[in-house]
Structures are given as C-alpha cells and as structure tokens.
Amino acid sequence: MDRTGLLIILSSPSGAGKSTLARRLMDWDPSLRFSVSATTRPPRPGEVEGQHYYFTTPGAFRQMVEQGQMLEYAEVFGNLYGSPRAPVEAAMRDGRDTLFDVDWQGGQQIRASALGGHVVSIFVLPPSLPELERRLRARGQDSDAVIAGRMEKSRAEISHWAEYDYVLVNDDLDQTEGQLRAILTAERLRRDRQGGLGRFVKHLMEEHA
Ligand SMILES: Nc1nc2c(ncn2[C@@H]2O[C@H](COP(=O)(O)OP(=O)(O)O)[C@@H](O)[C@H]2O)c(=O)[nH]1
Ligand SMILES: Nc1ncnc2c1ncn2[C@@H]1O[C@H](COP(=O)(O)OP(=O)(O)O)[C@@H](O)[C@H]1O
User: Fold this and answer.
1) Is 114 helix (H, G, I), strand (E, B) or coil?
2) Which atom of ligand 1 is least distant from the CA of 52?
3) Extended beta strands in 137-182, E state
4) CB of 16 within 8 A of CB of 209?
5) Phi/psi of residue 85, each to 5°?
6) Where is the signal peptide (predicted)?
7) CA of residue 209 to ligand 1 center, whole Å
8) Residue 142: what pLDDT?
9) Is 2's pLDDT higher than 70?
10) 93-107, pLDDT tens digit by residue?
11) Binding residues for ATP
C-alpha cells in the first residue's frame, strides 16, 4: 500500500515527560523515526551527539537556516533549536513516521510546512506545576537557575495547548504511554483510509467478480 509517513509532534513544558515518552514509544515501535534536532544548547551529561541532538554553534546553526536546511527552528530558553529537513523528507518518501520533540513554535511551523503529510500533534501536560518542578529537579541535570527559567516559561508553553489534536495529562507514565500507542495506531488507520486503501478495496472486489 502506498503511504506517506506521519509527522507526529510532541510538545509540553520542559519536564512534563516528552523525552521519556518519545523513548518509550520508539522502544514499542522501532520503525518510528525520531527527528534529531540541532541545538546550540550545551550537551547534558549522558547526551549523545546525533542521538539526542546535533550540538552545534550559533554560527553553524544560522548557516543551516540560511541554506534552507531547517524544516523549522526557534529560540527556546535562550538557545536555538531546529529540525533538519532532509531526514524528514526521506522518511516521508519511505512511508516512515517521524516523531518530533519540539516546542509550540516548532509545532506551528511543522503544521504550516509544505511537506503535505498527515500531521498529528500531541500536547503533554504535567498533573500540576509543583509536580513539574519536582520532575525537573529529579532529573538532576539542570542548575537551580535553569530550572527556575523553565518553570517561568512553562505557563507560556501551556497556553498553546488548544492548538494540538490531543492533550494528555502525564500523571501515570504507563497510562500515558498506552494513550500514545492508541493515538498512533488510530492515526495510522486514518492515514491509510485516506491513502492507498481505495486501491486495495478495488482489488478485493475484482478478485471474486
Ligand atoms: N522548535 C523547536 N523546538 C525544539 C527542538 N528541539 C527541542 N525543542 C524544544 O526545546 C525545548 C528545550 O529542550 P531541551 O533543552 O532538550 O530541554 P527539555 O525539554 O527540558 O528536555 C523543549 O520544549 C523542546 O521540545 C526543535 O528542533 N525545534
Ligand atoms: N509520568 C511520570 N511520573 C513521574 N515522573 C516522570 C513521569 N514522566 C516523566 N517523568 C520524569 O520526569 C523527568 C522529566 O522528564 P523528561 O522526559 O526529561 O521531560 P521533557 O523531555 O518533557 O523535558 C525525568 O526524570 C522523567 O523520568
């Protein structure tokens, strides 16, 4: 069956659980392609070049933007983040679904991009703001000042929740993962319904005509 890869956007305030959920979703379905972003933010301990991010300088980042290599990009928490375009286009051609961990600005730009794929957007909320702060601290990778900055920006990120197709409250991790799997399964069926399924039904009917 001919199909175009889905573009799946995952956004949330920092610390709500996007990266954890994305990792679990890809363990469940290794055919999913994670869009590895470029960023000017320094690596955290344990982050791997080319796996979590492409760590780069502001100059090199701007050059990629000028050369049209970014599908979208934005400044978040004082650093530049962007999704390289070429791997997304290749995945779409191969009918593979791409998962984006981007902020609301990236979500808007991917929806508006001329890639023409089936876009599914999911916003992840924390159960409460004190729990969000607890998770940022428990992650143990950011300084107090960085955590304070992220908490301050969380309201602005959350204010964009209504732009998303699905809004999940990530209280119990297993339950949220189950909801994500269900969304992905259903949206793939919708994509197939709009895609090559017509030809399959025609073939089915002709076989025993
Ligand atoms: N627009 C855009 N946002 C991104 C991209 N990559 C990451 N982000 C967002 O940047 C924010 C900060 O990411 P990061 O520094 O990894 O912190 P974390 O979300 O707390 O793990 C998050 O909201 C990400 O979703 C990207 O390529 N484009
Ligand atoms: N449902 C949950 N319940 C408790 N802790 C969680 C849950 N989801 C994620 N976490 C923890 O919260 C912290 C932040 O999660 P992370 O995936 O890094 O968030 P984000 O990518 O949105 O910034 C991590 O330490 C993660 O293990």
Assistant:
1) coil
2) 16
3) 166-169
4) no
5) -75, -40
6) none
7) 54
8) 87
9) no
10) 899 999 999 999 999
11) 12-19
Looking at ligand 1, which residue's alpha carbon is closest to its atom 21?
A: 14
Closest CA to 123 of 156, 180, 164, 154: 164
| Mean pLDDT over the full length of the chain | 94
Structure ipTM: 0.97
Q: In whole angstroms, give the CA distance from residue 114 to residue 111.
A: 8
Q: Which of 72-81, 131-140, 199-208 has the lowest mean pLDDT?
A: 199-208
- Protein residue closest via CA to atom 1 of ligand 1: 106
Nearest to 164 by CA among 121, 130, 193, 129: 121
**Cα separation values, 112 from 50, 72, 109, 149, Å:** 26, 10, 5, 29
Q: What is the pTM of this model?
A: 0.94
Residue that has been written with the tokens 């998962």 in this structure = 99
* Residue of the CA atom closest to atom 9 of ligand 2: 17
All structural domains of the chain, each given as residue ranges with its CATH number in brackets, are 7-35+97-207 (3.40.50.300)
Residues 6+ apart with CB under 8 A from 2: 95, 195, 196, 199
User: What pLDDT is stored for residue 196 in this prediction?
Assistant: 74
Ligand 1 atom nearest to 53, measured from its CA:
6
Q: Find, among 160, 39, 61, the residue nearest to 107 by Cα.
A: 160
> How far is residue 77 from each of residues 39, 145, 198, measured CA to CA in Å?
11, 12, 46
